[in-house]
């Protein structure tokens, strides 16, 4: 029975991690809105030429997104989540 209980706890942890990743991505898109707009403006009306015509904008957007979507950011969000959970459990 210990194995089943552990599997359930890991499943919950996976769900929490997925939610935190989603939240992280939403924040990144919000924070990088300027670069998203620049890229969208460049891409407007283009098809294959986006690859070389919008390379600079794509690089700027990716660099911005990476600031908000990396492992260290996710680990920090996990720590904050665990602290919140501990706070709820002790009250």
Automatic annotation (TrEMBL):
This protein's source sits in the domain of life called Eukaryota
Which source organism does the UniProt entry give?
Nelumbo nucifera (Sacred lotus)
> What family name appears in the similarity comment?
Belongs to the CMC family.
Principal location listed in the UniProt entry: mitochondrion
Q: Under which name does UniProt file this protein? A: COX assembly mitochondrial protein
A cellular component term from Gene Ontology for this protein is: mitochondrion
Which keywords does this Swiss-Prot/TrEMBL entry list? Answer: Disulfide bond, Mitochondrion
The record's section on InterPro entries has: Cyt_c_biogenesis_Cmc1-like
> Where is the protein localized?
Mitochondrion
One Pfam annotation reads Cmc1
**Gene name of the record:** LOC104603007
């Amino acid at each position: 029975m210990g194995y089943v209980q552990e599997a359930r706890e890991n499943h919950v942890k996976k769900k929490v991690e997925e939610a935190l990743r989603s939240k992280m991505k939403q924040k990144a898109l919000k924070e990088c809105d300027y670069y998203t707009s620049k890229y969208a403006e460049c891409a407007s009306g283009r098809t294959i030429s986006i690859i070389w015509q919008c390379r600079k904008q794509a690089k700027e957007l990716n660099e911005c997104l990476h600031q908000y979507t990396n492992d260290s950011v996710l680990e920090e969000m996990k720590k904050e989540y665990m602290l919140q959970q501990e706070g709820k459990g002790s009250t």
